[in-house]
Design a protein that fits this description.
This protein is α/β, with parallel strands linked by helices and about 290 residues long. It contains twelve helices and nine strands. It has a seven-stranded mixed sheet, sandwiched between helices. It has a two-stranded antiparallel ribbon with strand order 1-2.
């Protein structure tokens, strides 16, 4: 009698297989990959547990399991990730958007809410998948964004994500290394960035899903992980309106270093820090002096 692989049996087998390989969240990974292979939403799996798979469906699913067992992120296998309750295309050209970055979006929106007399203009440095820019424009009906990235491949993904969410007419994508393609004109109401901030020595200690697959140039930030952050801070004031803010995502433990360095910054008011959902100081705000 031919062996029958139902949805439930495959989920149970794959969960055990992933668990044995030390893969985090083995059940969730199995369900997401199977839903992807079957072209259905994850919820539909629960409604069709007894459904047997066709040979071609099994072949597709086995390939996704093979890739995940090699520690490729689920998001790169499925090609999508949710951020700010929106679905984004992702591939190895861009970082996978993470929940802690939503703190940066929340803080940006609270600052933009204070601008009532005009349509705000902001600059995002290192847009990657475009998740931050798209989320901000999606929430703010009058917002215009200039979003830059040094990676041409990342900009292709970002443009597709902007079109997916029908906001591409309000996001202007630019190929540039941080601010270096811009004239020294203080026109922006806000600058936001999730820059590389992993210390070089720490990079290879990260999970294989990150160190092997995500773009190193978007992660590695020099000896302390602070080289791009310091570069942005040194130049951002030239592009900000008076009293406008620079918002940067930072890594764990970096707030103490930056608080000491920028307790009395030349071009900004004293640094402020905001925690993420785990209590880690995740966002740095520097407001330009008037």
């Amino acid at each position: 009698m031919e062996d029958v692989w139902t949805i439930l049996r495959l989920i149970q087998w794959t969960t055990q297989y992933f668990d044995g390989k030390g893969i985090e969240q083995p059940r969730a990974g199995a369900e997401l990959l199977l839903a992807h292979a079957l072209g259905m939403e994850r919820l539909q799996l629960y409604l069709n547990y007894d459904q047997p798979l066709k040979p071609e469906e099994l072949t597709r699913y086995r390939e996704t399991v093979r890739r995940r067992a090699a520690r490729e992120p689920v998001q790169y296998i499925t090609g999508r990730q949710e951020f700010w309750s929106l679905e984004f295309e992702v591939n190895p050209a861009v970082l996978i958007p993470r929940p802690e970055t939503e703190i940066l979006v929340e803080k940006a929106l609270s600052l933009l809410a204070g601008i009532q007399d005009r349509s705000p203009l902001i600059l995002e440095l290192g847009t990657g998948s475009g998740a931050i820019a798209v989320a901000l424009v999606h929430e703010h009906p009058r917002l215009q964004v200039v979003a830059g990235d040094i990676s041409a491949a990342a900009l292709v993904v970002a443009r597709r994500n902007a079109r997916r969410h029908l906001v591409d007419n309000r996001i202007h994508f630019v190929a540039m290394d941080l601010c270096r393609a811009l004239a020294f004109t203080p026109v922006f109401d806000l600058i936001v960035s999730n820059p590389p901030y992993i210390a070089d020595a720490d990079f290879f200690q990260l999970a294989p899903e990150i160190s092997r697959y995500e773009p190193a140039a978007a992660l590695r930030g020099g000896p302390q992980g602070l080289t791009p952050i310091r570069d942005i801070i040194a130049n951002a004031h030239q592009y900000l309106r008076p009293q406008a803010s620079l918002l940067l995502e930072i890594g764990q433990g970096q707030s103490a270093i930056l608080a000491d360095e920028f307790a009395h910054p030349l071009h900004y008011e004293p640094a402020r820090f905001y925690p993420d959902y785990s209590g880690i100081m995740r966002v740095l705000e520097l407001r330009k002096r008037n």
